[in-house]
Each structure stands twice: as C-alpha cells, then as structure tokens.
UniProtKB/TrEMBL annotation:
Protein name: Uncharacterized protein
Gene Ontology molecular function: ATP binding; kinase activity
Keywords: ATP-binding, Kinase, Nucleotide-binding, Transferase
InterPro entries: CR_Ser/Thr_kinase
Length: 101
C-alpha cells in the first residue's frame, strides 16, 4: 500500500483497512495508530525530515511521538496549502484534496 493511501486512511481513522486481515482484529487500535504514525514519519519524502533511529526507538516507547506527530501534521498541511491541494466544498470552506490512488 502506498503512503498516499495510508495517509488518507489514517486521516479517515480507517486503520482497520491498513492492518493485515490475517490478524483477525486481534490487536490494539492504539498500538496500530502509533505504528502507522511512526511508519509515516520514517517514510517522509525528505530524508532530512525523517527521524533518527534513536528517535524511532523512543517513539515506539511512547516518548515524544505525540509532539513529533503534531509537528509532522502541521508541516503536511502547510505543504499541501503551498501546493494548492485545497478545494472548496459546497459551503465555500477549504478542504484538503487528496487524489485517489
């Protein structure tokens, strides 16, 4: 599954669509969310923005992941705004446009 699709599913909170169906829902959803967040941070297009392995280990130990994740989401929204990936909905409100893959 490509990162664009994972980002979309994560934003929609459809994490079950990302998890291996062979796990038969035998997993903790908070742990899945944490793993997806770490994976997305590690697969950023710019190598300079990817966390060091020591940060990944700390994140997996739940130290600092929330702060790093919030910062990444802000950067992602800013990048999308700069690229013009926002469209207006029927009420005129700007919404993030994500192309389907």
């Amino acid at each position: 599954m490509n990162t664009g699709k994972v980002k979309k599913l994560e934003r929609e909170k459809r994490l079950d669509a990302i998890v291996d169906p062979n796990l038969s829902k035998n997993y903790g959803i908070q742990e899945v969310e944490m793993m997806i967040q770490v994976a997305m941070l590690c697969t950023q297009s710019s190598p300079e923005e990817r966390p060091a392995m020591s940060e990944v280990v700390r994140s997996l130990e739940i130290e600092g992941l929330a702060e790093r994740w919030e910062k990444w989401q802000h950067i992602e929204v800013t990048r999308r705004q700069e690229l013009g990936d926002y469209k207006e909905d029927s009420t005129g409100e700007k919404i993030l446009f994500m192309p389907r893959f």
